[in-house]
Amino acid sequence: MPGDPIELAIAGDPRLGPEDAARMRALHGLDRPLLARYGAWATGVLHGEFGYSRLFAVPAASVLWPALWSTLLLLGCALAIAAAGGIALGVLAAARPRSGPWVDAVAVLGQAMPSFWLGILLIILFAVTLGWLPAGGSADDGLGLRFLVLPVATLAVANIAAYARHTAAAMRVALSEPWVRTARAKGASGPRVLWRHVFPNAAVPVLTIAALDAGALVSGAVVTETVFARPGMGKLIYDAIMGNDYNLALLALLLVALVTMLATLAADVAQRVIDPRISA
Protein backbone atom coordinates (compact mmCIF):
# COMPACT_ATOMS: atom_id res chain seq x y z
CA MET A 1 0.00 0.00 0.00
CA PRO A 2 1.39 3.43 -0.91
CA GLY A 3 2.48 5.95 1.70
CA ASP A 4 3.34 5.82 5.38
CA PRO A 5 0.20 5.41 7.53
CA ILE A 6 1.75 7.29 10.44
CA GLU A 7 2.85 10.20 8.26
CA LEU A 8 -0.63 10.37 6.78
CA ALA A 9 -2.20 10.24 10.24
CA ILE A 10 -0.18 13.17 11.61
CA ALA A 11 -0.14 15.24 8.41
CA GLY A 12 -3.37 17.01 9.26
CA ASP A 13 -2.33 18.00 12.79
CA PRO A 14 0.51 20.56 13.00
CA ARG A 15 0.89 19.91 16.74
CA LEU A 16 2.33 16.44 16.09
CA GLY A 17 6.04 16.18 15.39
CA PRO A 18 8.69 13.51 14.72
CA GLU A 19 8.65 12.36 18.37
CA ASP A 20 4.91 11.71 18.15
CA ALA A 21 5.38 9.84 14.88
CA ALA A 22 8.07 7.62 16.45
CA ARG A 23 5.82 6.95 19.45
CA MET A 24 2.90 5.98 17.19
CA ARG A 25 5.14 3.67 15.13
CA ALA A 26 6.25 1.91 18.31
CA LEU A 27 2.64 1.64 19.49
CA HIS A 28 1.54 -0.06 16.27
CA GLY A 29 4.73 -2.14 15.90
CA LEU A 30 5.78 -0.38 12.69
CA ASP A 31 9.30 0.25 13.99
CA ARG A 32 10.17 -3.45 13.72
CA PRO A 33 11.52 -5.29 10.63
CA LEU A 34 9.02 -6.49 8.05
CA LEU A 35 9.47 -10.20 8.80
CA ALA A 36 9.05 -9.58 12.52
CA ARG A 37 5.83 -7.67 11.90
CA TYR A 38 4.49 -10.43 9.65
CA GLY A 39 5.39 -13.10 12.20
CA ALA A 40 3.63 -11.18 14.96
CA TRP A 41 0.55 -10.75 12.78
CA ALA A 42 0.42 -14.44 11.77
CA THR A 43 0.85 -15.54 15.40
CA GLY A 44 -1.97 -13.22 16.43
CA VAL A 45 -4.27 -14.61 13.74
CA LEU A 46 -3.64 -18.17 14.97
CA HIS A 47 -4.68 -17.03 18.45
CA GLY A 48 -7.75 -15.19 17.18
CA GLU A 49 -6.21 -11.74 17.57
CA PHE A 50 -6.75 -9.80 14.35
CA GLY A 51 -5.40 -6.44 15.37
CA TYR A 52 -6.86 -2.98 15.58
CA SER A 53 -8.27 -1.01 12.66
CA ARG A 54 -6.64 2.40 12.53
CA LEU A 55 -9.20 3.59 9.98
CA PHE A 56 -12.29 2.84 12.06
CA ALA A 57 -10.64 2.96 15.53
CA VAL A 58 -12.18 -0.39 16.53
CA PRO A 59 -10.97 -4.03 16.45
CA ALA A 60 -10.62 -5.17 12.84
CA ALA A 61 -12.84 -8.22 13.32
CA SER A 62 -15.79 -6.11 14.50
CA VAL A 63 -15.70 -4.19 11.20
CA LEU A 64 -15.15 -7.25 9.05
CA TRP A 65 -17.93 -9.65 10.07
CA PRO A 66 -20.92 -7.44 9.07
CA ALA A 67 -19.21 -6.66 5.75
CA LEU A 68 -18.46 -10.36 5.17
CA TRP A 69 -22.10 -11.34 5.70
CA SER A 70 -23.28 -8.61 3.33
CA THR A 71 -20.85 -9.67 0.60
CA LEU A 72 -21.51 -13.41 1.00
CA LEU A 73 -25.23 -12.73 0.61
CA LEU A 74 -24.58 -10.65 -2.50
CA LEU A 75 -22.13 -13.12 -4.06
CA GLY A 76 -24.22 -16.17 -3.17
CA CYS A 77 -27.31 -14.77 -4.89
CA ALA A 78 -25.32 -13.58 -7.90
CA LEU A 79 -23.50 -16.92 -8.28
CA ALA A 80 -26.71 -18.96 -7.99
CA ILE A 81 -28.55 -16.84 -10.56
CA ALA A 82 -25.55 -16.78 -12.90
CA ALA A 83 -25.10 -20.56 -12.70
CA ALA A 84 -28.80 -21.30 -13.26
CA GLY A 85 -29.17 -18.85 -16.14
CA GLY A 86 -25.83 -19.64 -17.76
CA ILE A 87 -26.29 -23.40 -17.61
CA ALA A 88 -29.81 -23.14 -19.04
CA LEU A 89 -28.59 -21.00 -21.96
CA GLY A 90 -25.61 -23.28 -22.55
CA VAL A 91 -27.74 -26.43 -22.62
CA LEU A 92 -30.17 -24.71 -25.01
CA ALA A 93 -27.36 -23.68 -27.34
CA ALA A 94 -25.91 -27.21 -27.41
CA ALA A 95 -29.22 -29.08 -27.70
CA ARG A 96 -30.64 -26.80 -30.40
CA PRO A 97 -27.89 -25.76 -32.81
CA ARG A 98 -30.11 -23.13 -34.45
CA SER A 99 -30.27 -21.21 -31.17
CA GLY A 100 -26.49 -21.31 -30.75
CA PRO A 101 -25.65 -18.07 -32.61
CA TRP A 102 -28.01 -15.85 -30.63
CA VAL A 103 -26.96 -17.46 -27.34
CA ASP A 104 -23.33 -16.74 -28.27
CA ALA A 105 -24.28 -13.16 -29.16
CA VAL A 106 -25.99 -12.68 -25.79
CA ALA A 107 -22.96 -14.19 -24.02
CA VAL A 108 -20.51 -11.90 -25.81
CA LEU A 109 -22.68 -8.86 -25.06
CA GLY A 110 -22.89 -9.80 -21.38
CA GLN A 111 -19.13 -10.23 -21.05
CA ALA A 112 -18.40 -7.02 -22.98
CA MET A 113 -20.44 -4.74 -20.71
CA PRO A 114 -18.41 -3.16 -17.86
CA SER A 115 -20.06 -3.82 -14.50
CA PHE A 116 -19.94 -0.18 -13.41
CA TRP A 117 -21.63 0.93 -16.66
CA LEU A 118 -24.34 -1.72 -16.34
CA GLY A 119 -24.90 -0.80 -12.69
CA ILE A 120 -25.37 2.87 -13.54
CA LEU A 121 -27.80 1.97 -16.35
CA LEU A 122 -29.85 -0.20 -13.98
CA ILE A 123 -29.95 2.61 -11.40
CA ILE A 124 -31.13 5.13 -14.02
CA LEU A 125 -33.82 2.77 -15.34
CA PHE A 126 -35.23 1.04 -12.25
CA ALA A 127 -34.44 3.53 -9.48
CA VAL A 128 -34.52 6.99 -11.09
CA THR A 129 -36.92 6.60 -14.04
CA LEU A 130 -39.33 3.92 -12.83
CA GLY A 131 -38.77 4.24 -9.08
CA TRP A 132 -39.29 0.53 -8.52
CA LEU A 133 -36.11 -0.20 -6.57
CA PRO A 134 -33.71 1.73 -4.31
CA ALA A 135 -30.65 3.19 -6.00
CA GLY A 136 -28.24 1.81 -3.41
CA GLY A 137 -27.44 1.23 0.22
CA SER A 138 -28.62 -1.68 2.34
CA ALA A 139 -31.39 -2.49 4.80
CA ASP A 140 -30.86 -1.70 8.47
CA ASP A 141 -32.25 -5.11 9.46
CA GLY A 142 -33.23 -8.29 7.65
CA LEU A 143 -32.04 -9.42 4.24
CA GLY A 144 -33.13 -6.27 2.41
CA LEU A 145 -34.09 -8.10 -0.79
CA ARG A 146 -35.13 -4.89 -2.55
CA PHE A 147 -31.61 -3.54 -2.03
CA LEU A 148 -30.10 -6.74 -3.47
CA VAL A 149 -31.88 -6.86 -6.82
CA LEU A 150 -29.81 -4.32 -8.77
CA PRO A 151 -26.31 -5.24 -7.45
CA VAL A 152 -27.05 -8.96 -7.87
CA ALA A 153 -28.20 -8.38 -11.45
CA THR A 154 -25.07 -6.34 -12.16
CA LEU A 155 -22.76 -9.07 -10.88
CA ALA A 156 -24.72 -11.94 -12.42
CA VAL A 157 -24.91 -10.70 -16.03
CA ALA A 158 -21.24 -11.16 -16.93
CA ASN A 159 -21.11 -14.54 -15.19
CA ILE A 160 -24.28 -15.76 -16.92
CA ALA A 161 -22.52 -15.05 -20.20
CA ALA A 162 -19.36 -16.89 -19.14
CA TYR A 163 -21.22 -19.96 -17.83
CA ALA A 164 -23.37 -20.10 -20.97
CA ARG A 165 -20.33 -20.25 -23.24
CA HIS A 166 -18.47 -22.82 -21.11
CA THR A 167 -21.57 -25.00 -20.69
CA ALA A 168 -22.34 -24.92 -24.41
CA ALA A 169 -18.77 -25.89 -25.32
CA ALA A 170 -18.67 -28.73 -22.78
CA MET A 171 -22.11 -30.00 -23.83
CA ARG A 172 -21.15 -30.05 -27.52
CA VAL A 173 -18.08 -32.16 -26.71
CA ALA A 174 -20.12 -34.56 -24.57
CA LEU A 175 -22.87 -34.90 -27.20
CA SER A 176 -20.30 -36.18 -29.71
CA GLU A 177 -19.23 -39.09 -27.47
CA PRO A 178 -20.11 -42.67 -28.55
CA TRP A 179 -22.00 -43.48 -25.34
CA VAL A 180 -24.57 -40.79 -26.23
CA ARG A 181 -25.43 -42.68 -29.42
CA THR A 182 -25.57 -45.90 -27.39
CA ALA A 183 -28.02 -44.37 -24.90
CA ARG A 184 -30.23 -43.16 -27.73
CA ALA A 185 -30.05 -46.55 -29.45
CA LYS A 186 -31.31 -48.17 -26.24
CA GLY A 187 -34.44 -46.02 -26.42
CA ALA A 188 -33.61 -43.27 -23.92
CA SER A 189 -35.58 -40.09 -24.55
CA GLY A 190 -33.87 -36.88 -25.63
CA PRO A 191 -34.32 -35.02 -22.33
CA ARG A 192 -33.14 -38.07 -20.35
CA VAL A 193 -30.00 -38.38 -22.47
CA LEU A 194 -29.38 -34.66 -22.17
CA TRP A 195 -29.80 -34.26 -18.41
CA ARG A 196 -29.01 -37.75 -17.09
CA HIS A 197 -25.99 -38.63 -19.22
CA VAL A 198 -24.62 -35.58 -21.02
CA PHE A 199 -24.99 -32.78 -18.47
CA PRO A 200 -23.20 -34.52 -15.54
CA ASN A 201 -20.14 -34.95 -17.76
CA ALA A 202 -20.31 -31.38 -19.03
CA ALA A 203 -20.88 -29.92 -15.55
CA VAL A 204 -17.39 -30.76 -14.25
CA PRO A 205 -15.50 -27.89 -15.97
CA VAL A 206 -18.37 -25.49 -15.23
CA LEU A 207 -18.15 -26.33 -11.51
CA THR A 208 -14.42 -25.66 -11.54
CA ILE A 209 -14.92 -22.27 -13.19
CA ALA A 210 -17.70 -21.39 -10.72
CA ALA A 211 -15.43 -22.23 -7.77
CA LEU A 212 -12.60 -20.09 -9.11
CA ASP A 213 -15.09 -17.28 -9.78
CA ALA A 214 -15.96 -17.14 -6.09
CA GLY A 215 -12.73 -15.25 -5.47
CA ALA A 216 -12.90 -13.28 -8.71
CA LEU A 217 -16.41 -12.10 -7.85
CA VAL A 218 -15.01 -10.29 -4.82
CA SER A 219 -12.96 -8.06 -7.13
CA GLY A 220 -16.13 -7.40 -9.10
CA ALA A 221 -17.90 -6.66 -5.83
CA VAL A 222 -15.46 -3.79 -5.20
CA VAL A 223 -16.88 -1.90 -8.19
CA THR A 224 -20.46 -3.04 -7.66
CA GLU A 225 -20.55 -2.18 -3.97
CA THR A 226 -19.02 1.21 -4.71
CA VAL A 227 -21.57 1.99 -7.45
CA PHE A 228 -24.49 0.97 -5.23
CA ALA A 229 -22.97 2.37 -2.00
CA ARG A 230 -23.40 -1.05 -0.42
CA PRO A 231 -21.25 -1.84 2.63
CA GLY A 232 -19.39 -5.08 2.02
CA MET A 233 -16.01 -6.77 1.70
CA GLY A 234 -15.19 -5.21 -1.66
CA LYS A 235 -15.75 -1.66 -0.50
CA LEU A 236 -14.08 -2.43 2.84
CA ILE A 237 -10.90 -3.70 1.11
CA TYR A 238 -10.86 -0.59 -1.06
CA ASP A 239 -11.28 1.72 1.95
CA ALA A 240 -8.64 -0.18 3.95
CA ILE A 241 -6.05 0.03 1.16
CA MET A 242 -6.73 3.69 0.44
CA GLY A 243 -6.60 4.45 4.17
CA ASN A 244 -3.40 2.43 4.77
CA ASP A 245 -5.18 0.22 7.30
CA TYR A 246 -2.81 -2.76 7.23
CA ASN A 247 -4.57 -4.91 9.83
CA LEU A 248 -7.97 -4.58 8.19
CA ALA A 249 -6.65 -5.09 4.65
CA LEU A 250 -4.65 -8.20 5.60
CA LEU A 251 -7.57 -9.77 7.44
CA ALA A 252 -9.99 -9.02 4.60
CA LEU A 253 -7.66 -10.48 1.95
CA LEU A 254 -7.08 -13.53 4.15
CA LEU A 255 -10.82 -14.15 4.29
CA VAL A 256 -11.12 -13.75 0.51
CA ALA A 257 -8.41 -16.40 0.06
CA LEU A 258 -10.18 -18.67 2.55
CA VAL A 259 -13.51 -18.31 0.73
CA THR A 260 -11.81 -19.18 -2.57
CA MET A 261 -10.18 -22.27 -1.05
CA LEU A 262 -13.47 -23.47 0.48
CA ALA A 263 -15.31 -22.90 -2.80
CA THR A 264 -12.68 -24.91 -4.69
CA LEU A 265 -12.94 -27.73 -2.14
CA ALA A 266 -16.74 -27.73 -2.45
CA ALA A 267 -16.40 -27.92 -6.24
CA ASP A 268 -14.05 -30.92 -5.96
CA VAL A 269 -16.54 -32.73 -3.73
CA ALA A 270 -19.43 -31.89 -6.06
CA GLN A 271 -17.45 -33.18 -9.06
CA ARG A 272 -17.01 -36.55 -7.35
CA VAL A 273 -20.75 -36.72 -6.68
CA ILE A 274 -21.77 -35.73 -10.22
CA ASP A 275 -19.16 -37.71 -12.17
CA PRO A 276 -18.48 -41.20 -10.72
CA ARG A 277 -15.42 -41.60 -12.97
CA ILE A 278 -13.50 -39.09 -10.83
CA SER A 279 -14.01 -41.05 -7.61
CA ALA A 280 -13.32 -44.39 -9.26
UniProtKB/TrEMBL annotation:
The keyword Transport applies. It is a multi-pass membrane protein. One of its GO terms (biological process) is transmembrane transport. Signal peptide: none annotated. Residues 68-267 form the ABC transmembrane type-1 domain. InterPro entries: MetI-like, MetI-like_sf. The chain crosses the membrane at residues 72-95, 116-133, 145-164, 202-228, 248-270. SUPFAM superfamilies: MetI-like (SSF161098). The keyword Transmembrane helix applies. Its main location: membrane. CDD domains: TM_PBP2. It is found in: Cell membrane. One of its GO terms (cellular component) is plasma membrane. It comes from the Bacteria. Keywords: Cell membrane, Membrane, Transmembrane, Transmembrane helix, Transport. Belongs to the binding-protein-dependent transport system permease family. This is ABC transporter permease.
